[in-house]
Design goal:
Blueprint lengths: L4 E6 L5 H10 L3 E7 L3 H8 L6 E3 L2 H5 L6 E4 L6 H10 L3 E5 L6 H14 L3 E4 L6 H11 L6 E11 L8 H16 L10 E5 L9 E7 L5 E7 L1 E13 L3 E5 L7 E13 L9 E12 L8 H15 L7 H19 L20
Parallel strand pairs: 1-2, 1-4, 2-3, 4-5, 5-6, 7-10
Antiparallel strand pairs: 7-11, 8-9, 9-10, 11-12, 12-13, 13-14
Helix pairs in contact: 4-5, 5-9, 7-9
């Protein structure tokens, strides 16, 4: 490994301190500065007797030669302009989810990073948990077979956000996981969404989104701010096995069930006229892997450095962020159309279709 990369964290609000802590602890990074319009808040995050600089001007940060990259943890509406400034200054960028406020802005960010030869990464944190990495590898090895359905539930008695609905608050986690674990990423032909606002909060507080998958399968995402019980669970049914991920069960976060339904079509001498379906239930073993407990953000900052050093796309690159954002926009459009299916826009730039 070469010298550590210099990093500045931009934004010292809710998520910034977590980024500061992990970049500071990583041997691959040298945390040089924390930038925030509120100097007192930034100094509090940095802590007393720290060698980390506090800045209130992004222009000053981007002009520094000892900073190779910036981590943006500011409101979504600022992500695109800040990232574009960073790329123009020759800095790599990791940005908090969602990648931008609109897919048009996200596409501009991807294009700018490509043209500058710089890394653009989205902090889809759950994709760096040991459980989700294991799920990705399990599906990639074909252990589950073809994915027939995904049921994802993320509900709790949560804080009602002032500027976004429950889909934009909670669903990015589930959508980013689906984009990471599904072969080919999250590229549904259409999305249907329904929701309700029983609290009269002026925004959807409980919602359901459904999208078709390849091989005739389907994915269903349930998000809810109103549940007194907190559930973070995903069931992934395959043609061979079914995987259950329970993020709130540290003793059994992942379980693979060799259980399911086998449907065999039995032909006869006159198969075109008469066919009988034989249904059998498969009751096999349950496998519970031993997973290492490791903070996801620690793996994320390591992946960011590796992507820069190896000059490759990161595990959750700008294109992944754009795919997730396109589905979120389709969910909003479907809600506005009272549940009518909406096709996510597959934004492309250049003639070679490099965003596909």
């Amino acid at each position: 490994m070469g010298r550590p990369y210099g990093i500045a964290v931009v934004g010292a609000g809710y998520w910034g301190p977590n980024l500061v802590r992990n970049f500071r602890a990583s041997p691959e990074w040298d945390l040089v500065a924390v930038c925030d319009l509120d100097e007192a808040r930034a100094r509090k995050v940095v802590g007393p007797r720290s060698m980390v600089d506090v800045e209130t001007s992004l222009e000053t940060v981007l002009a520094r030669d000892d900073i190779d990259a910036v981590a943006i943890a500011t409101p979504a509406k600022t992500h695109a302009p800040l990232a574009l400034m960073a790329f123009a200054a020759g800095k790599h960028v990791v940005v908090e989810k969602p990648i931008a406020q609109t897919s048009v802005e996200a596409a501009e960010m991807v294009q700018a990073a490509d043209e500058a030869g710089l890394t653009l990464m989205v902090d889809h944190t759950y994709c760096y948990t040991p459980a989700v990495q294991y799920i990705h590898e399990t599906i990639s090895r074909g252990v589950l077979g073809h994915i027939l359905y995904v049921d994802s539930i993320r509900i709790n008695l949560g804080l009602i956000q002032p500027d976004i609905d429950v889909f934009w608050d909670l669903a990015p986690h589930d959508l980013s996981i689906l984009d990471y674990i599904l072969p080919g990423g999250l590229v549904p032909a259409e999305v249907s969404a329904t929701g309700a606002d029983p609290l009269h909060a002026g925004k959807v507080c409980v919602g359901y989104a459904t999208m078709p998958l390849a091989n005739g399968g389907t994915a269903h995402v349930n998000v809810n701010w109103m549940s007194p019980t907190k559930i973070r669970q995903m069931v992934i049914g395959g043609s061979h096995r079914t995987l259950v991920w329970d993020d709130l069960n540290p003793q059994q976060r992942v379980a693979i069930h060799d259980r399911g339904i086998d449907l065999a079509i039995q032909g006869t001498s006159d198969a075109d006229q008469r066919r009988a379906a034989a249904i059998s239930y498969r009751l096999g073993d349950i496998t519970v892997p031993a997973l290492q407990e490791k903070e996801a953000l620690s793996s994320m900052v390591t992946e960011f450095a590796a992507a820069i050093r190896e000059q490759r796309r990161s595990r959750t690159d700008g294109r992944a962020g754009l795919r997730v954002l396109s589905v979120l926009e389709a969910i909003s459009a479907s809600l506005a159309a009272h549940g009518k299916p909406v096709s996510p826009e597959q934004l492309q730039f250049a003639l070679d279709g490099s965003l596909t």
